[in-house]
Design goal:
Length: 300
């Protein structure tokens, strides 16, 4: 394999899906008409990495929490294949490169987000040798069966809505027999809180009768899916996965980010940011008021 892909790419890429390479990204054709993908195209892909520099923004508060959750599922061998499904601009792929893993795959349907990630690493060619970027839909991963020791899908599968299980099945297909799957999915009540804070009471009550969550930026709206803890565990079990741990991301991060957006958290609160981070890290393990469920599972 050439054209800027790492030397090991050929071993993990399946042949069933036609691909081409552009700017160091393996590009697969993506079917039209998916609202989640259309939304992310319209905002030029995820900007979680950029947002993580704004104090008290949700991405800033949550990124260390995800790092902690990922640290808990580190495979023992640095040769393990790590696949980040819906990895966006790569904030949750970077820890794996920092920890020395030699084969990290980021899959996302938005080419520009992957290209931004690649250009951020341009001055670290030794990292690019360990990173394979793939433009693809979670429902059609161009990867060979059972290639991955760890598959993570962090706040991405919920954009599949009714097709959630199609994405989950693909994640399971590429997972090795003893591998781990880590998913982060919106919590039902966390979704209501989001709608109440950023929308209004009427929207929140209407949403309560469904498992939909509506959100978005710059006046653009996107629908995603949420779960209660029991519903998510049942969904995984129905798909032949055994839950090993069920933790989360506290709803406090959502509330804090909202308070920042309305000016109730200001630069005066900067002095407390370390304590806030520590509290959120603790609540990720012990809390029950969740914005997202973070579940680790294995093949049953
Ligand atoms: C909230 S962002 C999370 C990005 C990243 N996982 C993170 O935590 O920083 C949601 C991501 O899901 C991706 N996404 C949306 N629909 C998808 C699909 N059908 N297949 C794979 N990824 C999808 C988006 O492009 C976006 O990068």
């Amino acid at each position: 394999m050439n054209q800027g892909l790492p030397f090991w790419a050929q071993e993990v890429i399946g042949t069933a899906i036609p691909t081409k390479v552009q700017d160091g990204v393996l590009r697969c054709a993506i079917a039209d008409g998916d609202s989640g993908i259309d939304y992310y195209r319209s905002i030029d892909g995820a900007h979680m990495h950029d947002r993580a520099s704004v104090s008290y923004a949700m991405s800033t508060l949550d990124t260390p929490i995800y790092r902690q959750h990922l640290n808990g599922v580190r495979p023992s061998s640095l040769d393990a294949l790590i696949v980040d499904v819906g990895g966006g601009d790569g904030r949750n792929a970077l820890p794996w490169l920092e920890w020395g893993y030699k084969r990290v795959v980021v899959v996302d349907p938005i080419f520009s987000a992957l290209r931004r990630l690649r250009s951020r690493l341009a001055d670290q060619p030794q990292w690019l040798d360990r990173l394979l970027l793939i433009e693809a839909d979670a429902r059609r991963l161009p990867l060979v069966p059972q290639c991955a020791t760890l598959v993570q899908a962090i706040e991405s599968l919920y954009y599949l809505n009714e097709a959630y299980e199609d994405g989950l099945r693909e994640c399971t297909r590429i997972l090795s027999v003893s591998g781990r799957l880590l998913v982060s999915e919106r919590d039902y009540e966390g979704g209501l809180l989001l709608s109440l804070l950023y929308g209004n009471l009427r929207d929140s009550l209407a949403q309560a009768r469904t498992r939909d969550v509506w959100d978005g930026v710059d006046g653009l709206r996107v629908r995603s899916r949420c779960f209660t803890a029991v519903e998510l565990a049942a969904m995984l079990e129905r798909n032949h996965l055994r839950v090993l741990s069920h933790r989360g991301v506290s709803a406090l991060s959502l509330i804090l980010a909202y308070l920042r957006s309305v000016g109730k958290i200001t630069s005066d609160d900067e002095t407390q940011i370390d304590d806030v981070h520590q509290l959120l890290l603790d609540l990720a393990n012990t809390g029950s008021m969740r914005r997202c469920h973070v579940v680790v599972a294995e093949k049953a």
